[in-house]
Amino acid sequence: MKHKAKYLTIIGGGLWGLSLGNLAKHNQENTINLWSRNSHETLELAIIRADVIVSAVSMKGVRPTIEKLQEINISETLIIVTATKGLDPETTHTPSQIWQGAFPHNPIVVLSGPNLSKEIQKGLPAATVVSSYNINAAETVQSIFSSDIFRVYLNNDPIGTELGGTLKNVIAIAAGVCDGLQLGINAKSALLTRALPEMIRVGTELGASPETFFGLSGLGDLMATCDSPLSRNYRVGYGLAQGQKLDQILIELGSTAEGVNTTNVLIDLAKKQKIAVPIARQVYRLLNGKITPQEAVQSLMARELKSEFDDLDF
Ligand SMILES: NC(=O)C1=CN([C@@H]2O[C@H](COP(=O)(O)OP(=O)(O)OC[C@H]3O[C@@H](n4cnc5c(N)ncnc54)[C@H](OP(=O)(O)O)[C@@H]3O)[C@@H](O)[C@H]2O)C=CC1
Ligand SMILES: O=C(CO)COP(=O)(O)O
Prior knowledge:
GO terms for molecular function: glycerol-3-phosphate dehydrogenase (NAD+) activity; glycerol-3-phosphate dehydrogenase (NADP+) activity; NAD binding. With 314 residues, this protein is an alpha/beta fold. It has 14 helices and 7 strands. Helix 1 links the parallel strand 1 (7-11) and strand 2 (31-35).
């Protein structure tokens, strides 16, 4: 596919916004503008020439960013890419659902995959997924970000794509606990394998395709995040297993660990919609100081015995 030069504005100067900016610069025909709340330029000026904007803010920045953009009369042809991995505490909606609700006529594209920003910043090879109901918009974003170090796949299940990246953050906290307690590879394999149907149960309830969870944005991101101390969510779990307090861990991280908020929202959602999320429930109890890491493990091991696949009907 022939790439046409595009003007891209990235909103959010955090770790992920900076990394995405660097990835897009690999294609030298693109013009990249990075905007953050500290920029001297106004957001209106920053997006004035944009064909595509990328929201790389954390979950708590999604609504404030949308409100700022709603004050500007944006074109309905502007492609909006969301790279946030979180759930809205007020509505339990995903970021793409919030963006689509705010800008119903604009094409919305989700970008999500196993993309630890520290590895991307080193120029190591990685792959990701861009997903949209508007396949032309997804192809435009695919050609903007594709390079010899970043392989970008297309997909038409945006909710599934972003839920893979969002829900694995909860499991990454559990994986950090598992490694922090030195429970071994058997335990870790069991944890991650059982996490996948749990993620799929939530995803299908919210309208995602189960297959999406076997791709890069699901299983791929689960593997990356649950097996790397570069993951902030993993480090939350690891710290808790070492007896550190959550507040202290988050201060030391000095950066976003979306899994903490996502766990709280997910448990709210799971209670309302009666979805079985046994691993997330233990993470929730641990994060909220109701149990110790050891008790979380014991609770999972003591669950009622069952068949391996009796809760998946696909
Ligand atoms: N780092 C990574 O490896 C990856 C991160 N992600 C996801 O990207 C998102 C951002 O992560 P990351 O950049 O690492 O986080 P950082 O903690 O490095 O940065 C936080 C980002 O959120 C923005 N933000 C925070 N609060 C607000 C607010 N109230 N209003 C507007 N913007 C706000 C900041 O904007 P500002 O710059 O204006 O201060 C900044 O861009 C998360 O959802 C994360 O899960 C996805 C893939 C990889
Ligand atoms: O989403 C990520 C990698 O794909 C980043 O993980 P953390 O937010 O846990 O650092």
